[in-house]
Amino acid sequence: MLKFRVLCHPTEDLCSSLISLETANHTVLFGRVGEGTSRALMNTKPIKLGRVEQIFLTGTTQWLEQMGGLRELCGYVAESSKSMKDGIPLQVFGDQKLKWAMATQRNAKSRINFPARFNCVNSAVVIKHMTVTPVFLGGYKLDSNLDEQELGHKTNMILDHLFKYPDSELDSGMMRTSLVAPTCPESSLCYIVQPDTPGDTIAGDKAIKLGVTDGKGFKQLLNGEFYVTSNGNVVTPEMVIEKAEPMGQIILLDIPSQKFLEYAKAVDWKQSNTKDGVVVHILSKEMDPFGIEYTSFIESFGDSYQHLISHPKYCTDAFPYLRAAKLRTALQIMSPTNFPVLSTASNQHTIPDHMSKNCSPFICGTAFNPGAMSETSLPLLVNHTINSLPTVTSIFTGHFKAPKFISLAENHANGLTEIKAGREHTKFDDVECIILGSGSGAPSVYKNVAGTIVRFPSFYDLPKSVLLDCGEATVLNLRRMYPTKKYKQIMSEIRLVMISHMHFDHHTGLLSFIQEWARIQEHESLYVVGPWQIRVWLAEWSQVMPELARVKFFDAVCLLHGADLTDHEKLNLFELIHPLKLTSIEAVCAVHCLDSFSYALQIQNGFKFSYSGDTRPNFEFVYLGQGSDLLIHEATLDDNLIKGAIEKQHCTITEAIGVARAMNAKKVLLTHISPRYPIFPPFVFHLPEIMHNDNPITTATNEDEHGEFLALYGNTMRWLPGRTALAVDGMVVQFGDIGLQDHWADIMKSAIL
User: What's the whole-model pTM score?
Assistant: First the structure.
C-alpha cells in the first residue's frame, strides 16, 4: 500500500516543501530540500530515511529553498541506508543545472562519503510502484553557444570524484577554475506521479460463502484458475475477483512566480483515466493562491481532485525543531535576557470557505493513502494535523509545569538581575554575541552548526557586526529568534563575514545569508574573508545570483601574521579595514584541515576579539590573540575524549579554557560542541565542583605536541570564575554577562525536555 506523507512545510526557519511516497520497503522524496531539512526530519517520525532510493527536486535550481540542504540530506540517508553502504547510489533528479550546482561544492569537505548519482530528468522515470513524468514550465533548451559536451565532461569528472571515487584526485586547475553555469531559459520542474495499479484482490466473504475455505483455493483463483469446493461446486475467478481501480495521480506543481502560472495553465495535467488525484502546489510568497486567476486554475482540475497548498502565508508557522524549541523555552524562563522568546510569523491566512472543500494547507505530519481518496476527507485530516502542532503557548503550558523547575528558574532569573545591578560596568559590556549555531559536524536535534554574530551596539554612529562562520540555516535561525523589524536591523548591521575553513558545518549557509542580507541591506557592500575556495564558490554562483556582485572577498592567506603583501594586496587590506573601522585584522593557520584559519580583530576603540575556528591548541593563535577582551574558542569534546580530539584535530573543553588563560583573554565563549552531547556536555554539570576542588583537573595529561605548551600556564580551572560562557543555540549574551551561567546545569536537570 502506498502512503503519502508531508515531511516538511515552510516556516520562518525552514524553507522546505517535501513529501514522501512510501511502501513497506521503499521511499521516494519529492519537493524542495532547503537548508535545515535534515534537522527537521530528525523530528519527523516515523519516516525511515534508510529506505529512500530516489529524490526528485522540484522548482528551479537555487540554494536557500531548493537544494541548500541536499548534500546533508544525502549524507543523512546514507548513514542508515543498507543499499548505499553496499555501494548502490542514491538517485537524485533535477533540472539542467543540478549537476553544475553539485559540482560547485567540490572544494567543500564533507563529513561522510556516500554513493550518489545526480540526473537531469528529461523523460519519464519508471521506478518501484510508480512512474514519474517530469514537466518543465518554461524553457528547457541549452544555449547553443555553450560547449555542453565540455561542461558535461568537467562536471561528470567532479561528481565522480565526489560521489563515486572519493579517494581519487582532481586536477588543481579544475578545483580553482570557476565552472560555467548552463545558460538556458529559466524553467521550473514539476512532476506527474502515476502509482502502479495495485494487484487484483479476492472478495473474501464472497469466496467463503461459495465454499473456498483454504489458502490454496485463494491462490488458484488469483492465478486465474477455477476451484472445486468440497461439495463439488466450481468457483471461477470471475465470481470472486475484484478488479483493482487505477490509483489517482499525484501532481507536484512548483510555481515560483506569476509567469510560471501561465506555463502551467497550458499543460494537460490529467494524463490518466483516473477520476481523482492530489495536487501539491508549492508556491512562493509572491503568489496569491486564492486570487481570481489561481482559483480558476485550481478549479480547472475538477471537483474530484484534492489540493494541498504549500505557501508561507497558509502553512502554520509551527516549530520544525520541536525538541530544540522546548529547550529554548526552558532557558528563556530561566534567563529571559539571554534567550528571546521564539518569534512566530504574524498575519497567517486561512483557506477561504468557498475553497475549503477541496483545498487544504500543506502541513507536516499529514499522511494518507492516495488509493483511498474517496474515503478520506483531506481537509479534516489536515485540520487534525494542524491542531496537534506545537506553538509557543503549548510549549510553555505543556512541558514546564514541574514546580521545582519553575521555582529554580524564576529564582535564578531574579538573582541574575541583582548580580547585574551590583557589578562594575566597562565600556565593552554591551558587546553582544548572538549564537545561531553551537554544534559541530552536522545539524543535530538540539544544535545547529557553526554561526555566531558579534555586535558592537554603541561603538559606531551606525552599528556594525561580524558573522563568524555561516553553517547551514544560519540566517533562518536568526529569523526565528526575532520579530521582523529587529531581525532586519541585526542583518543590516552585519558588514563582515569570516569563514574559518571549508568543512560543511562552517560555510554552507553563506549563499542564503548573502541573498537575504542583500534584500535587506540595499546599498552597502558585504566583506567576506575566508580560504580561497570561498572565492571560487561565490564566483560560480554569481552567474545565477546577482546579489553576489556586492560581495568583496578577501583571501585569509593575505591576513596571515607577518605576511609579505604586494601593493595591490595592501590596498585591498586598507579597503577592508577602513570602512569597518578596524585597527587590525590578522590570521594564523589553524591546526586542523588544509586551508583553515583562526582570526584576531581589533576595533578602533580598543576592543579586541579572537576566533579559533576549528583547531587543536595553537601557540601561534595564543600569540596572535594575546590580551583579547573576548575569545570565542571551539570546545568540541569533554576531557575524557582527548584521544578523539587529537585524532579529529579539535580541542577539549579544558584545553580551550587553557588557551584562553595562555592568551590572557578577559572572557571566553566556548562553542562548536559535539552532537554526542545533546544539550550540555558533561563538563558543565560538574563545573562548580571543579572550580572549588582543591585538586582540580589540569590540562597537561595525554597532550600531543600541540597542547603541551598549556602545562606552562598552570591550573586552568583556577582561571574560570566569572570569565566563561558555554554557547547554546538561540542565546544572546553580552560581554558583561559572560560568567553568569554557573547554575544553569542544575536547574536544567529539573526541566521536562
Answer: 0.90
